[in-house]
Backbone:
């Protein structure tokens, strides 16, 4: 078993650092429905961590707990070694946790560029007057922000649509713009809620490549939820498996694949 | 040049100026509607309330004077000082920001995610509440508002046009000032919305709440900000109308005139509010001028609404509104 501060090098040569986020005994209830039951797991610096499970297992709820959209009734969240108090989603975002949504939440009326620029919102400190009159800090920050954004646009190969209103884009590209906006915040942890849902094989391959490249190039820690088992097993370093709100497996893709509980949950088991 | 045509031109110009004031009120509606999806019925009352407060502060009136006197049997009405206009405007702005905070904290924070009709009902309640508070706080008599804006006929225009046509146009200085201020205000709002971080955040909130949260925007803060800006626009509108026709409670009825303006311009478009306001302003004056005498006059009372009705039938999203597309 690894220690919280240990780091190691993967087979493909990436360095995985110590624990950056730890969920401890999280329980989340909606009235009488228990969505998450006493789950603990951690996310390490620089890794791709997947959360999988059948429909209704509580995966999205878990992601919502991490990003502050839900506050769990029990349990603690440790972020960068400190206990995180209960927070509003925008506060979590400002701490450096960016996310995408299962059903895509983009600013449909804005252009691709404007959408991605919103990812930089809490990176600028200039006050209202500096911004209105385009002076000093405001100008420097805007230029720096634009540089970051342009780099991401290049990286995700969406140069040709940068001035297109997002509402006009096809589904696959919207997903990519959402990823770009999350990346623009230069997050310490990037949360992806089913980044490949509803995509065709080609789009899935593109998205997988981008996720791997982001992790490789920027060293971004990624936690993702995905249904496509093939994709998850190829992408991730470690996998948490959930079923009916409980954790039934945690480990490398190979370990998880051979875990009897996981096989039962996915293939069903005869009850006698 | 025929007299009718020259006179028509004068009517046209006066219509433009009236339209500017309609546009100012409509602008307040658009701002709140864009950022929070709330149709703020209280916008007109906010203009009234801000004008009442401004006069009250300037004249050193004791807030809730009548109430205090009635309870304690005292006879206080005025502090006995006069506050300069500029300072009074700043103080009133402070009151409007305070109002924005209260509205958000006590009303709309608790109604997040409710149906639009419920939010709309809440603003009707707010309108009556605010009208009542304005009455108790400052009294219901008609007040004169003198913030030092020039008033009366603009002699330069009068003389120039007299030189050209042999007939001097009557253009009120106050209308000219109102137009200049409206142009300034709209430019400032556009710069704010398009080029500042807070403006970007505001547009983000208007578009998608969840997405805005995920990029670190506090909805609460943005909503308070938007209500404050709407309060500021209401104050400007209140000053203009108040200076023109005195601060009186019928001011809140202007809000109703803003409705056809919004139907023309579209509920979501700032340029739409401006152009809609101008069209209504010019339209009703010209219509009264051209058709009024044939039908016995008073067309100004209904022209705007009929025009809005026609628009509702043929172009429900207005001139500049976002097209309503229903995907199946």
Residues:
């Amino acid at each position: 078993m690894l220690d919280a501060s240990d780091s190691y090098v993967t087979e493909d040569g990436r360095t995985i650092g110590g624990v950056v986020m730890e969920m401890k005994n999280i329980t989340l209830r909606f009235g009488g429905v228990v969505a998450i039951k006493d789950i603990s797991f951690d996310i390490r610096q620089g890794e791709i961590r997947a959360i999988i499970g059948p429909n209704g297992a509580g995966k999205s709820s878990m992601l919502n707990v991490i990003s502050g959209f839900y506050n769990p009734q029990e349990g603690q969240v440790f972020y960068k070694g400190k206990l995180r108090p209960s927070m509003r989603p925008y506060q979590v975002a400002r701490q450096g946790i960016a996310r995408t949504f299962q059903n895509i939440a983009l600013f449909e009326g804005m252009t691709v560029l404007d959408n991605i620029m919103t990812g930089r919102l809490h990176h600028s400190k200039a006050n209202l007057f500096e911004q209105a009159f385009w002076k000093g800090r405001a100008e420097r920050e805007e230029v720096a922000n634009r540089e970051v954004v342009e780099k991401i646009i290049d990286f995700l190969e969406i140069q040709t649509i940068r001035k297109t209103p997002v509402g006009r884009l096809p589904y696959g590209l919207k997903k990519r713009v959402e990823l770009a906006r999350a990346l623009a915040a230069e997050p310490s942890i990037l949360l992806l809620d089913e980044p490949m849902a509803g995509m065709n094989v080609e789009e899935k391959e593109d998205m997988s490549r981008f996720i791997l490249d982001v992790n490789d190039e920027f060293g971004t820690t990624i936690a993702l939820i995905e249904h496509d088992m093939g994709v998850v097993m190829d992408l991730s370093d470690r996998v948490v498996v959930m079923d009916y709100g409980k954790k039934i497996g945690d480990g490398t893709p190979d370990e998880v694949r051979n875990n009897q509980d996981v096989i039962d949950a996915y293939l069903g088991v005869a009850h006698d | 040049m025929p007299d009718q045509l020259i006179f028509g031109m004068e009517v046209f110009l006066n219509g433009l100026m009236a339209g500017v004031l309609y546009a100012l009120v409509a602008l307040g509606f658009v701002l709140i509607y864009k950022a929070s999806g709330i149709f703020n019925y209280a916008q007109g009352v906010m203009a009234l309330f801000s004008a009442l407060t401004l006069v009250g502060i300037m004249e050193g009136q004791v807030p809730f004077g009548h109430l205090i006197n009635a309870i304690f049997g005292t006879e206080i009405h005025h502090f006995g000082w006069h506050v300069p206009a500029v300072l009074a405007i700043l103080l009133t702005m402070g009151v409007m920001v305070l109002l924005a905070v209260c509205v958000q904290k006590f009303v709309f924070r608790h109604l997040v995610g409710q149906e639009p009709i419920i939010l709309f009902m809440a603003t009707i309640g707010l309108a009556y509440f605010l009208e009542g508070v304005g009455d108790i706080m400052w009294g219901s008599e008609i007040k004169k508002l003198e913030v030092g804006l020039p008033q009366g006929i603009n002699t330069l225009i009068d003389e120039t046009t007299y030189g050209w046509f042999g007939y001097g146009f009557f253009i009120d200085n106050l209308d000219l000032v109102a137009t200049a201020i409206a142009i300034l205000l709209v430019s400032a709002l556009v710069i704010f919305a398009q080029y500042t971080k807070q403006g970007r955040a505001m547009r983000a909130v208007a578009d998608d709440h969840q997405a805005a949260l995920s990029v670190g925007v506090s909805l609460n803060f943005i909503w308070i900000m938007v209500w404050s800006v709407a309060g500021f626009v209401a104050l400007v509108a209140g000053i203009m109308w108040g200076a023109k026709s005195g601060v009186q409670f019928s001011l809140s009825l202007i809000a109703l005139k803003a409705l056809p303006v919004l139907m023309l311009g579209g509920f979501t478009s700032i340029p739409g509010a401006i152009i809609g306001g101008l069209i209504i302003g010019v339209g009703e004056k010209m219509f009264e001028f051209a058709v009024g005498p044939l039908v016995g006059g008073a067309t100004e009372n209904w022209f705007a609404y009929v025009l809005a009705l026609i628009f509702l039938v043929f172009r429900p999203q207005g001139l500049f509104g976002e097209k309503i597309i229903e995907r199946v």
About this structure: The mean pLDDT of chain A is 89. The interface with chain B takes residues 67, 69, 88-91, 93-94, 98-101, 105-110, 114, 117-119, 121-122, 124, 126, 128, 131-132, 134, 181-182, 185 of chain A (CB under 8 Å).
